[in-house]
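Notebook entry, structure prediction.
Reason for the run: the old model in the group folder had no record of what sequence produced it. Starting over properly, with the input documented here first.
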Amino acid sequence: MSAETELKFQLSPRKLSSVLPNDGSRQRRRDTSRHTLVSTYFDTPKRKLRRHGLTLRVREVDGQFVQTVKAGGSAGMTRGEWEDEIAGTKPDLAKTKNSPLGDLARSKKLARKLKPVFRTNVHRTTQARRVRSSRIELAIDHGRIEVGGRSRPVSELELELKSGQVADLFRLARTLERRTGAELDLRSKADRGFQLATGTGLGAQRAEPITLERAMSPREAFSVIAHSTMRQITANADPVRTMQSEGVHQMRVGLRRLRAAISLFKDVLPRASTARIKAELKWLTNELAPAREIDVFLKESIEPVADQGVPKRGLRAIQRRFAGQRSEAFDRARNALASPRYRRMLIDVLQWIEAGRAHAGDDRPIVAYAADVLDRRIRKARKQGKQLGDLDPRQRHKLRIRIKKIRYALDFFESLYRDRDQNELASLSGVLKRIQSALGSLNDFMAHRELATQAALTAPPANRRAQAFVSGFIAGEEHEAARGLMKDAAKELHRLHRLRIAPGG
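New structure, fully documented this time:
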């Protein structure tokens, strides 16, 4: 078994040639090699290997066949890798016995069920680099991922640490980002291939399930969670660029989940560097916010009143106004992702996660840490919720964020619960979801009221009265709905209870 520690970047095909210096030196030519790699990835129809966090690949290189099993990667940049030369294009499961696939391969059914899922055909150029005392392999891949009649281009840069320090890997990554505009992408070719096979790769990507081991330290658990949120953030970059509203939403969810994780684990994170990372995450969240807010306003406030007898002229005017603002907001989001600041932020956050592994922190197992975190946060939410009727909009907003963090915490810690706790877990999760939904709608109403009022006050003279009527109608409708939401939130807050995770329980 070997371990690979790598960073992967997406790069425009026209910039691939600028990655490798063309100085023509004899040493540089000796350090550079070129190959055509044809790889076939296998799994069962029900994706048994993928569900176990495993990848099985057979690659043809210069007439030879190499079988590779990969495992891990959820907790960081390093993955286990088991390679064996085999006789042909089909997997040889007998050679997987010393890999994590070995236990699954004991079943004779697995060999019968394994089928090719997709293929990659890539031209790879590799070059050895020295960065200080570290040896790094730089690889440029240009080709395609193919599934049946569908395909997707591959244009990526990969940096693999062969020996030395991870800090040197990031040092080279920053140099190449500045020179070429390469953008960090945490998806492997396997991830992209399975997405293409299922037809899910081009749309918005939701959060993936998180699996924690009960014996993990809080710092180790945070690393798993943080890497998962980063995968959600980077996986939604393309949907944001193509102006998919759900892509904007899911990238914001990924950012909020990472910020929530930082809050939940603040006791075990280094303060100085964490403050800088939080500021960058907040910057990107703010750049995406207008696109999401105006999109929701159009869909949930303006469109529903079209059939309620409001003046058509006013409705058309307000629709045109906010459609234009929506376009401007999406341009702002896309410009943020096209900026060097965004690309640097991705590298900075990933290095911060990796570097924080060595930070001294709470030495309790994660089950005890999670129990304490949930207990304290639920008690505070219940206490604040008792005065819900007396809270102003800003205080209600803070309570909503508190509830949201508890809900994210349950998602993060779900794998720590025993089967006997699942009913209580589902009950608590349902209560939190209903509280968050009610308070979220109340928060949206306040934002929509401001948008509607501003639209009425700044409407052009020709449409001012009609547009003001529509704006007032929207505000009135939401005011009535807010009363019911307050009652719903108060009822669910009263039901809020604590779920304990006991060490060894």
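Summary: The mean pLDDT is 88.
The old model has been moved to the deprecated folder.
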